[in-house]
Amino acid sequence: MADSSTQQDGRAFHHHDRTLVVMPTYNEADNLGPTLSGVFSCTHRADVLVVDDNSPDGTGRMADFMAQGEARLHVLHRKAKNGLGPAYIEGFHWALEHGYDIICEMDMDGSHRPQDLARMLDVMARNPHVGLVIGSRRVKGGQTVNWPMIRDVISRTGSWYARRMLALPVKDVTAGFRAYRASLLEQIDLEGIEANGYVFQVDMTRRAHQAGATILEVPIAFIERTRGASKMGSGIVLEAMLRVTGWGAERMIKRS
Fold first, then answer.
1. SS (H, E, C) 65-103
2. CA nearest 179: which of 204, 210, 144?
3. How far apart are CA 117 and CA 43, in angstroms?
4. Residue 164 and residue 202: Cα distance in Å, rounded?
């Protein structure tokens, strides 16, 4: 067996995959240090790409300074705040151009735990047929911590609606904690994605499913941020409802 693989429980899994964690930021200066420290300590092989939307609080400049002393940290600057979806798409393109094998989505605000990222990557390494691993709040063992009840209700309702309208085999459709294989992202028309806010996650889920990808959900604890302000707003929720309804209608028309 090649020395890049390990055998356990009869399955071969690889440790040589180049992994990049894409982390969009806007005014996350207070979270930058703690979050990056946690990621680097829990995932010894993963690199991080900070995609900053010209944060007024200097997040991008701080990331540049930190990158001078950390070879695993990279920074991509965008000219203005232009939405979560476009930030991730730019990060995906950067990752593919630089030859990464596993490309992750993770929030900078501390709501996603680095130890859960390590578990997700381990699951992906042990299951080479899996194209997408989702850090899920909605499967057994998953949870949210210190969330306001109204936000939890909106999240659960949104996932349920998207799952039913789009016939997706995923409990946490809106989850933003993910690990993709580069080979799956190369099959997806990233340029055709118009979703801007958190509905971007729904769009990526449906596109991964349409591409025939095997999707696994790993239970995680989603922690309410303690520093900085949430970017969630009513406009983001409305965009999600409208787009999911439109995609669902298209699916039903095609089936009829």
1. HHHCCCCCEEEEECCCCCCHHHHHHHHHHHHHHCCCCEE
2. 204
3. 8
4. 12
Show the tokens assigned to 59. 């997040």
Q: How far apart are CA 194 and CA 191, in angstroms?
A: 8
Chain segment 49-60, per-residue pLDDT in tens: 999 999 999 999
Of how many residues is the chain composed? Answer: 256
Give the pLDDT score at 77: 98
Half-sphere exposure of 238 (CA within 13 A, CB side): 3
Which whole-number Å values give the CA distances from 146 to 139, 143, 149, 222, in the listed order? 18, 10, 9, 9
The tokens for 39 are 């990621």
DSSP string covering 1-14, please? --TTEEEETTEEEE
Please state the separation of Cα 187 from the chain's center in Å. Answer: 17
Task: Flag whether the pTM goes above 0.85.
Answer: yes
CA distances to 28, 175, 233 from 134, rounded to whole Å, are 23, 7, 23
How far apart, in whole angstroms, are the C-alpha atoms of residue 61 and residue 89?
Answer: 22
Residues 212-241 have pLDDT tens digits of: 999 999 999 999 977 656 555 567 778 888
d(CA 61, CA 76): 11
Q: What gap in Å lies between CA 118 and CA 151, rounded to an integer? A: 27
